[in-house]
Amino acid sequence: MSAPALRLGTRRSLLARTQSGHVADLVRARLGREVELVEVTTDGDRSQASNTSLVGSSSTGVFVSALRDALLADEVDLVVHSLKDLPTAPHAGLALAAVPTREDSRDVLVARDGLTLGELPVGSRLGTGSPRRAAQVAALGLGLEIVPIRGNIDTRVGKVTAGELDAVVLARAGLARIDRLDLVTETLDPLQVLPAPGQGALAVECRESDTDLVAALGEHLDDAGTRAAVLAERAVLATLEGGCSAPIGALGEVVEGEDGDELWVRAVALSPDGALSVRSSAAGRLDDAVGVGTRLGEEMLADGAGQLGQPGPVDTQTEQGEER
Ligand SMILES: NCc1[nH]cc(CCC(=O)O)c1CC(=O)O
Question: Which reaction(s) are listed as its catalytic activity (predicted)?
Answer without folding.
Answer: 4 porphobilinogen + H2O = hydroxymethylbilane + 4 NH4(+)
